[in-house]
Model the fold of this input.
Amino acid sequence: MKKVYVFLADGFEDVEALIPIDVLRRGGVDVTTVSISDFPLVQTAHGVNIEADIMFEQGDFSDADLLFLPGGMPGASNLFAHKGVCKAIVDQAAAGRKVAAICASPAVVLAPLGILDGKKATCYPGFEQALAENSAKYTGDLVTVDGNITTGEGPAAAFPFAYELLSQLADKKTSDQIAEGMRYKHLMA
Done:
């Protein structure tokens, strides 16, 4: 079973974390949510309290098939301020394993860490300058995949982003079945 860790910081964008978590779990992926604060409860950008599965200090992320950073502000800034998260992400990318980030996180976390150097990526509009400043090519697409890095644009990208990640971690057939079961295909008609 594929293993995913989702880092949750106070101020993360609700749907950008919860939709991918839901889709991946429906697809049979082992998803662990990780609080990077001092408490298991993490508050979303819109005031919803979410209890993470583990605290950052309890995690050994070396078994991760994917490390995932939701966006939102100040969630993305809080992720970047956490030295342990930054080290885990850099180590994951350097090992050629999958990293995913959505909304502000590609620009606020991945780009300054050098993970997007020379890669195509997307992010929330208004943050694209940070990609260019760090040698990444902004696509403006809802979802962009470049090698082991997957980026998403923002809240509206949460479903296609999640199905892309599930395709990578399981397979396209499983992803399509989950999308159909969740009635996502009706949005595309």
Summary: The first strand starts at residue 3 and ends at 8.
